[in-house]
Amino acid sequence: MKKIKYFLIPIILIVILAFCLTYPLYSRFPYPLSWDIWYHMRIVENFSSGFFTFDPVSFGPEGRIHTYPPLFHILLLGLYKLLNLIGLSLVDSARIMPAILFPLSAASMFFLVNRFYGKEMALLSSFFVLIIPVSLDRGIIASPQSLALVLMPLGFLTYLMGLNDRKYLYISGIISSGIFYTHGLSFIVFYISIVLFIALLYLAKREAKIKNFYIFTLITVIISFPWIIQLLNYGIASNIPYGGLFKLSFYPVKLGYITMALALPGLALLILRKKEEDLMLISWGVIAFILSRNYIPGLDLLPFRFIEFLAYPIAFYSSFAIFEFVKDKKREVFVAAIVGIMIISCFPAAEYVSKVRPMVGNEEYSAFSYLNNNSIEGNFTVASSWFTSPIIGKVSGLKNVEGGYASGSWDYIKRSQDVTSLYSGNFTITEIYNIKYIYLGPREISEFKNSENHLNDSSIDKLYNSDKSSMYIFWSSYYE
Known about the structure:
Strand order of the largest sheet: 4-3-5-7-6
Order of helices and strands: HHEEHHHHHHHHHHHHHHHEHEHHEHHEE
Oligomer: single chain
Strand content: 5-15%
Number of helices: 22
Shape: globular
């Protein structure tokens, strides 16, 4: 009983801190913080309507095959059905989801580190996960990656335990397929980290345990097979846009100056130890870093996003360094050092949370709601920037020319070029996509230069207008 008590206390502390960072945002804002959650909410509505593999709103008027992994949408749908019993909406469910997933991801990291390094280091590692800027940036929004970051530490944990007990290897394979069904980039980091771990294990101990890896991979493939077939049938986008590359000097900004300063010596100490668990956590950090640098020419996989995965091993490296530095000190010095670092590290996190705002405001939401209540019936589409499209699609219910995750489709480039042409005054584009409405908001004004002048100088009628948002309507299907 005493052992359970000392195990639960740090978990409770992690959950309370994560909840304090996320739940106040739920009460402060009526909308979710990110843009992409609007796309995922609409996919949840598609699921409720029986559209599991087809997205009728994006890429209107015909729609497109839906190839985003389904597990996050199933979870959000289940949460919505549960919260709807007490009167909360789907938007409310999306707003409250970070207060569930972020604590779970920190707790997941706790379980991984605790198993091999003890609860004190696990608690500190989880604390760093919560306050590292880029990790916090991901944690305060609801997204498939947030769910994947709950599963990844558990996947690494069960794989390590499976080296000695095969039943955990089966569990690791199940978790691996769960990551595959959740988020593609997360699966890439997870699986390649396992591959690197096998290589490092062979170099360090001359034992690769290939059979374990084959079993793990086989289970992953078998369970993931239905979605693999879906991707093979309908394609994986070949035109994912290059997402930018951070300078190395910017890594401390995203990963925290204190944690980065501690992580490097922590990593060096881990390399010298060469234990299996050390090699796994080293592999995770190395793969996330390599992918964040985009060292493979022609493979544009949004390199800036991989820094978010790097935050978790960095959190552990930092904790490991601290414990190595103070392990021979008096307990009072040890406690003072840990508490001092934790307090200092909290300030940037608290400041960041105090400044975040949703990416849609009341004014834009009102414009989209107006379209929902006053649109003309028919198989029409709405033109806007790719960023605004999923929000318009969710709130208005109308089809978009591009839609959420437009870059994840084969004809994205042509549609993107056509939308740019439309905002530049080429209104013949309306006929191609049966466009009835065009939205002009802050994002469109910024992205499409002089778009406001092109629209206002034309004979197109303005259907709706406010300080930041305007909605134009095409009364005929063709404009000279």
